[in-house]
Amino acid sequence: MAFDVKNKTVLVTGANRGIGKAILEEALQRGATKVYAAVRDVDSASPLIAEHGDRVVAIAFDLEDPASIVAAAKLAADTEVVVNNAGVLKSASAIDPNAIDSLQYEMNVNVYGLMRVAQAFAPVLKSSGGGALVQLNSVVSVKTFADVATYSASKAASYAITQGLRDSLRDQNTQVVSVHPGPIQTDMATAAGLEENAEPPSVVAMAIFDALAEGRFHVWPDSMAKQIGAAYQSFAENVVDADMEESPA
């Protein structure tokens, strides 16, 4: 299954900065007709609209607010590609006194938020002929780092849900992509102390649309991600991507 973004309508969550902004700009560069900038504060998308005109449409969207997601799906009913980029990170180890609170917050946004997006937009994508759903996961979905253990747990869970969505949405011809960046030059990376080896957000954006065009499920966009992805490849091919007829007991 492969997908060309040219002449398509795309929705990007968290599109006002960082990776989301780079994804929006790459979609336009590759010929997308329109991109919905799905953000909590629609005013934050004003610079994008000033630069790109009516090819960018700001839409209110909050992964913690199910009603906003349902409303967005109704307003953006012509969406053909959903890129769920928005997410949160709390730097907490498993023994941090605030670890449980951090994990609950991250699960609500990073996992339940993804599920809310999928449930709201699956019918929209189906009506467009299938389209595509892209989820921003992380290298920490397959490798936990102690200082961000709760974030790693939430991304492991979102990766699991992404795999399930790939199989659930296959019959409606929706392509699902799981993106696993390493350190990227964003506010989130800076907050986690990872800015030293971080790469530009554009590497993630380009890798996403290349994967859509090539029909690939996993995306390992940057240097660290490629290293981890190469080590993970055998398991991915033989287990994650394998067509297993029955679920394990």
From TrEMBL:
Keywords: Oxidoreductase. It holds the Pfam family adh_short. The keyword Transport does not apply. Its EC number is 1.1.1.340. One of its GO terms (molecular function) is oxidoreductase activity. Belongs to the short-chain dehydrogenases/reductases (SDR) family. NCBIfam families: PRK08264.1-6. This is 1-deoxy-11-beta-hydroxypentalenate dehydrogenase. It comes from Allorhodopirellula heiligendammensis. The lineage of its organism: Bacteria, Pseudomonadati, Planctomycetota, Planctomycetia, Pirellulales.
